Amino acid sequence: MKKIISLTLALFTAFALLLGATSCGSEEKNERILDGGARTLYVYNWGEYISDGSEGTIDTNAEFEKYCREELGLNVTVNYSTFSSNEDLYAKLSSGAVSYDVVIPSDYMVARLASEGLLAELNPDDTIPNYQYISEDFKGLYYDENEIWSVPYTYGTVGVIYNTEMVPEDEENLGSWALMWDEDYTGNILQFNNSRDAFGTAQYYLGYSVNSDNEAEWREALALLIKQKNVVQGYVMDEIFNKMKGGSAAISSYYAGDYFTMYADNERLAFYHPEEGTNVFVDAMCIPKSSQNYDLAVEYINFMLTEEIAIANAEYICYASPNSLVYENETYIEDMTEVHPDAISILYDFDMSKMEFYHDLPTETRMLMNSLWEDLKIESNIGIAIYVICGVIVALGIALVLYNIIEKRRRKYYFDKYAK
User: Fold this and answer.
1) DSSP E strands: which ranges in 21-70?
2) Beta strand ranges found along 286-413 (DSSP E)
3) pLDDT, tens only, 233-253
4) How far apart are CA 363 and CA 162, in angstroms?
5) Which residues contact 66 (CB under 8 A, 6 or more apart)?
């Protein structure tokens, strides 16, 4: 009996040891799978806003995947998608319906996302070694004063792009926002299709702050935009590229960096910063609170600040870079001068005293802006509907007249025929 008990205990102990050894082996294996297995990094960025390998450029996302394989031992795929406005980005993140690992909003939207608890703390001084190359001029700005939530990716300004073949050199409104309201160019003017930038054009023209909480000023800006809709061809974002490059529009407000992309295909295009003032902005890399790959997102942000990759992105998107590895690089300066003789001055040398950052608006002001934007769009739709209805009425009138003429001739024909 004792032998049976002893044998049973021995077998039980051996089984327990074997189970323990198997369990430890499984944990180690799982860790290896986690570290070396396939992972997907979800990146959400503006359209046309990263070097993607086209036309001989560096595919920076592919290079990151290669870096992960060779340096980190990770099988990573970058799932890259784009948005056309900060408001679109906000709608996606705030809905909770999707999860991204790296997003690149503009300054005021960084502040808003952080205030609503939608961003993870990044603390780049501690987590991003290449953060040391970001200019001090772009650290601790109003939207992230304590440098917790973001790393600057690029910066730029808003101005007016125009076609020199369609807008003469002696045009009196050149240099002013007034050109965007000039009736001489009716049907050839493009306006931003996002509320903040569209209202900004009107507010600068009126001499108001884009961060005003004065309802009367916002309504005055709306009235100006409603007046403008009579001369506007359409409200656009990425569609502007084909329209301005192809010459199907003469004038548009847009971002300075994108001007160079259009100029490469149409050297008749020119650019200026309006004398009344305009927007300066920073787009920054952030990690959403919902990210499932925080460590990988940190690696991605740091990788985007390395010299070769940062220069590739800056040259591809043609926006100003806050990274000293870029703006101090002689090859970069030469390359940009080849893109446009005034590229460096347009991107880096401008009067900041006439520039204003967008700030995150108070909730009431933001709701007012969104409501007024809807009013503008409704006004626009009603205007189009009126033209369509008038066109239908005219067409019906013409058809009725033609019908009466034909009917009279038919009756006369039969009357003359049978009267005899």
Assistant:
1) 38-46
2) 355-356
3) 999 998 999 999 999 999 999
4) 35
5) none
